[in-house]
Amino acid sequence: MSSIANAALAEPAPKAKPEAMTKAASPIVMGVTLSHADKALWPDGGDGRAVSKLDLARYLEAVGPWMMPHIAGRPCSIIRTPNGIDGDGRFFQRHLGKGSSALISQVTVAGDPKPYLQIDRIEALAALAQGGATEFHPWNCRPGWPELPGRLIFDLDPEEGLSFERVIEDALEVKARLEALGLAAFCKTTGGKGLHVVAPLKGGRSQVDWAAAKAFTRDVCQAMEADRPDRYVANMAKARRVGRVFLDYLRNDRMATAVAPLSPRARPGAPVSFPLSWSQVKPGLDPGAFTLRTAPALLSATAAWADYGEAEQPLGPAIRKLKSR
């Protein structure tokens, strides 16, 4: 072997300079590049593992096709926790700031000179995840029509200490009353201790305005309170809620919002608001079972809300029927 070959074997290869080392590529979800993708947004996803920004973006990619019909075309407020749900910097946002992704739409509504944030394409969910958006709260208008109600929300909020079985019973009572008035009813968890009962509304010539929609939901809730004052309260005053379920009809106003189906919540355990079939709304239902980790698989195994679009009903006849009682 030549002396040159011996020298080549004897000398170790030069080390690569740090600046020349290949950096790991930033992950891309739905075409959006995620910076700091491993940043923990939830310290524990209910399984002992932190939930990262990348986990959030992939979750939204998985559930987005189901979620989009319930948020698209509507102004949407978000809660951002860019430093995690326990970190500083949590804030509520409804207007886009400078430098926001072009994937996110904007819509102008009467009474506010600043355009509202709106999610009209699934890729916008990943762009919002990049900004640390951990909750999505759309208006309840008809898509593309902020001035017209598109669904009713009955928010059942139990007083601290009440069992979840009570909430289940009360959701079934709301369902029965709505169906007796000719409306369809759907149910979802809120990602908290309550349930939402949702009634989809049909547009057209019989479309009513926000004032009428709010008055209708108020009257339904007040009728329930009048029938069972020991069980329900339609007034948000804390002193009146002891031992009762608060029937919150205030989601049914022009600029009011409600957490979107499948939206994560910025709460311990990474819970989500999950759509339910009525066969699931029975004793033993555990709202804590629906998390950012578990929801995609559970969603693929359910037909809940499959007929939501076909179930829309006009509100006018229901209003007239309630007034005639």
Q: Topology of this protein?
A:
Elements: H1 3-10, E1 28-29, E2 32-33, E3 40-42, E4 51-52, H2 53-67, E5 76-80, E6 91-93, E7 105-107, E8 116-118, H3 123-130, E9 133-138, E10 141-142, E11 145-149, E12 151-158, H4 164-180, E13 186-189, E14 195-200, H5 210-227, E15 232-233, E16 245-248, E17 275-276, H6 295-300, H7 316-323
Helix pairs in contact: 2-3
**SSE sequence, one letter per element:** HEEEEHEEEEHEEEEHEEHEEEHH
Number of strands: 17
The count of domains is 2
Strand order of the main beta sheet, please?
15-16-12-14-13-17
Key phrases:
3-stranded antiparallel sheet; 325 residues; disordered N terminus; 7 helices; alpha+beta; globular; 2 domains; single chain; 6-stranded mixed sheet; DNA primase, PRIM domain
Describe this structure in words.
The structure is a single chain. The protein has 2 domains: 34-138, Alpha-Beta Complex (DNA primase, PRIM domain); 140-261 and 305-325, Alpha-Beta Complex (DNA primase, PRIM domain). The strands form 6 sheets. It has a 6-stranded mixed β-sheet, covered by helices on one side. The chain has a 3-stranded antiparallel β-sheet with strand order 6-5-9, covered by helices on one side. By secondary structure, it is α+β, with helices and mostly antiparallel strands. It has helices spanning 3-10, 53-67, 123-130, 164-180, 210-227, 295-300, 316-323, and strands at residues 28-29, 32-33, 40-42, 51-52, 76-80, 91-93, 105-107, 116-118, 133-138, 141-142, 145-149, 151-158, 186-189, 195-200, 232-233, 245-248, 275-276. The longest helix is centred in the last third of the chain and has 18 residues, at 210-227. Helix 2 runs antiparallel to helix 3.
